[in-house]
Amino acid sequence: MYSCPFDNVNYDITFCTNGQFPKYTQGGPIRPYYYAGKCLDVRGGIFANGTPVQVYDCNGTAAQRWVFVRGTTKVRLANTNFCLDAGSNPGNGIQLKIWQCYNNLRAQQWNYEPYLDRIRLDAQVNGRSYCTDLRNGIATNRNPIQTWECAYQNTNQMWYNPLG
Q1: Domain for residue 121, yes or no?
Q2: Of 21, 36, 72, 121, whose CB has the highest number of CB atoms within 10 Å?
Q3: How many domains does the chain contain in total?
Q4: Average pLDDT of the segment spanning 34-50
């Protein structure tokens, strides 16, 4: 059994005729945990290598529809070949962007940890783990999303995904 951490949330479960769960390709929002009306967003809805990722009012556009699963995963924009990318030198304060998805690219391998409500870069860099981080914990539109060294219960690094 799974218990949702939010009140008044319902789930629809669809089974395929073969008894398996369908692959969810439509994606959904990723929200800063304490800001329900804000979403992870691709700046300007521009799907191109290097476009920054930011926080923005949730609006249901394709720029806010992400597909990923628990555990090691890519965080991919639904119905595209663009993934959340930490760049070649992840570290504190490095802004996240989207980039064409590549297999086995360390900058695009994330680990969604629902028990900590965080999205952590799967590979360590110089012995440190880095997480998606809401810069300075500010949820103002266009505030960049960055990597920052993971810290236990850091509210800047806590994310809610209603699909999760």
Answers
A1: yes
A2: 121
A3: 1
A4: 95
Q: Using an 8 Å Cβ cutoff, are 96 and 146 in contact?
A: yes
Specify the pLDDT at position 161. 73
CA angle 121, 125, 128 (to 5 degrees): 85
Over 80: is that where the pLDDT of 57 sits? yes
**Which residues neighbour 75 within 8 Å (Cβ) at sequence distance 6 or greater?**
30, 66, 67, 68, 83, 84, 108, 110, 112, 119
pLDDT the model gives residue 18:
52
Whether 148 and 131 have beta carbons less than 8 Å apart is answered as yes
Q: Please give the residue range of the domain that contains residue 60.
A: 31-160
Answer yes or no: are the C-beta atoms of 104 and 122 closer than 8 Å: no
Residue with more model confidence, 4 or 34 = 34
The whole-angstrom separation of Cα 34 and Cα 119 is 15
7 pLDDT above the threshold of 80:
no
13 found inside a domain: no
Tokens of 152: 């236990």
CA distance 77 to 95: 17
* pLDDT value of position 145: 97
Q: In angstroms, rounded to a whole number, what is the distance separating the alpha carbons of residues 149 and 78?
A: 27
Q: Are strands 31-32 and 53-57 parallel, antiparallel or unpaired?
A: unpaired
